[in-house]
Design a protein that fits this description.
Length: about 425
């Protein structure tokens, strides 16, 4: 098959009693399962029903591949663990956006482009002041991201590749500045401007923790760990927030509004909010002797409690990101000379118990990307309420890469799922006469 056109490999026949057999093409991509193309079903008077899209591919994509059974995650064909240890986040941004890792010249140009856009329009700082100080930083990020289109409307022709590229650069460059501002605003500290002499991750940490009154030196080991966390969260194919960005973008909405939709969806505790929920859960468990009580609650169908940081729609093996995250966790704790992190013991013991428990084994519930990330961020001194903001920061490149791919794909059209209607049948308002 060509690089981006699914290949017709056979036909499936759908036999519905009372209806002629319906032939459906079976397609194959470059990797992954075969796909039954059901587009013709609508004309035959049938819809398919798949709440949560468990068995439904909404698009074709060249960006990220996941094999959930084997715990494989590839960004443009490269394994995540190799990128996390051999590349840096900006190289991964270039890869996700353009399909190839940059050579030296391409990287220098791309990095300069990003550095040239780290500042935000000064008037945006007033927007922050409209929020209560105790606002959740994700509430601020949803609002500010959507408002960006009010400031950068000079490049909003979504059909112009140059406008799309400029917007991608602006979003990747500005999202750390905005994220750090959301934190500074919440603690009543002055905003810290970007320092373009610093690396992307070091610049973010500097904006988070520096103050105007004294020098702040970023620990290079922590900056590297932050950069790796950004890489691990950069993209994950058609997850809920990326699908939200694509659905919003399918109507022609501007990219900033689409990113705001992604941030809103990511905030949920079943998705990107799980890192914040996971740390709060580990703190709530508190000591290893209370783990059995929470394991029992996680199994109890009458209790809505679930183990945050466990389970995944796609991974039915260990999330490859969790493996790298666990290694990074130990690196950071060693660098910061944290011997007995209060909740690391709980996390380690919870993982051990869950992985040996029948309930979790038969449901293929393993730690996911959110299980260890909270411990690292907590050790670095980042407040729990900022965890999902950091996820959103890192995922912005994935969102804008998928948004761009959708704009470039000829098959893209407005997303409009159907439904099974189970409401009231036709009835008349008293005295009314139907024209149906
Ligand atoms: C992310 O999609 C992505 O790629 C997302 C993400 C990304 O990078 O974009 O990877 C990031 O969102 C990771 C997931 C973070 N969420 C959490 O850690 C929250 C806790 N996990 C669960 O809420 C759940 O596992 C989901 C939401 C992640 C997946 O839900 P599914 O696929 O709808 O699975 P399910 O609810 O059908 O669960 C299957 C079974 C059920 O039991 P039975 O009805 O079969 O008896 O497993 C059980 C569930 O009750 N189950 C759990 C559980 N997760 C699933 N039981 C206890 N604890 C859990 N965490």
């Amino acid at each position: 098959m060509q690089d981006d056109t699914p290949e017709l490999v056979k036909y499936a026949t759908l036999n519905i009693p009372g209806h002629d057999p319906i032939e459906l093409p079976v397609l194959r991509g470059t990797m992954g399962p075969e796909v039954i193309d059901i587009r013709a079903l609508g004309k035959q008077g049938y819809f398919t029903y798949d709440p949560g899209f468990v068995s439904t591919a909404a698009c074709s994509s060249r960006i990220t591949f996941i094999d959930g059974a084997k715990g494989i995650l590839l960004y443009r064909g490269y394994p995540i663990d190799q990128l996390a240890t051999k590349a840096n986040y900006l190289k991964v941004c270039y890869l996700l956006l353009k399909g190839e890792l940059p050579d030296k010249e391409q990287y220098t140009h791309f990095e300069n482009e990003i550095k040239h856009h780290t500042l935000i329009h000064e008037q945006i700082t007033s927007l922050f002041k409209a929020f209560r100080r105790d606002s959740h930083p994700m509430a601020i990020m949803c609002g500010i991201a959507g408002a960006l289109s009010a400031f950068y409307h000079d490049n909003l022709d979504i059909y112009d590749p140059e406008h799309r590229e400029k917007t991608a650069i602006r979003l990747i460059a500005k999202i750390p500045t905005l994220a750090a501002m959301a934190y500074k605003y919440s603690i009543g500290h002055p905003f810290i401007y970007p320092q373009n002499k610093l690396s992307y991750a070091a610049n973010f940490l500097h904006m988070m923790f520096a103050t105007p009154s004294e020098d702040y030196e970023v620990n290079p080991v922590i900056a590297r760990a932050m950069d790796r966390i950004f890489i691990l969260h950069a993209d994950h194919e058609q997850n809920a927030s990326t699908s939200s960005v694509r659905l919003a973008g399918s109507s022609g909405a501007n990219p900033y509004a689409c990113i705001a939709a992604g941030i809103a969806s990511l905030w949920g505790p079943a998705h990107g909010g799980a890192n914040e929920a996971c740390l709060r859960m580990l703190e709530q468990i508190g000591t290893t002797d209370r783990i059995p009580e929470f394991i029992a609650r996680a199994k109890d169908k009458n209790d809505p409690f679930r183990l945050s940081g466990f389970g995944h729609r796609v991974y039915k093996a260990y999330d490859p990101r969790a493996v790298v995250m666990r290694e990074t966790c130990h690196e950071v704790l060693n660098e910061l000379h944290i011997e007995n992190h209060p909740i690391l013991d709980v996390a380690t013991e919870l993982e051990r118990i869950a992985l040996s428990d029948e309930y979790f084994i038969e449901r293929h519930l393993y730690p996911n990307v959110d299980f260890y990330s909270g411990i690292i961020l907590n050790a670095i001194g980042i407040p729990t309420s900022m965890f999902t903001v950091i996820f959103a920061l890192a995922r912005t490149v994935g969102w804008i890469a998928h948004w761009t791919e959708m704009q470039e794909m000829p098959e893209s059209r407005i997303g409009r799922p159907r439904q099974i209607y189970v409401g009231k049948t036709l009835r008349q308002v008293k005295g009314g006469r139907s024209r149906l």
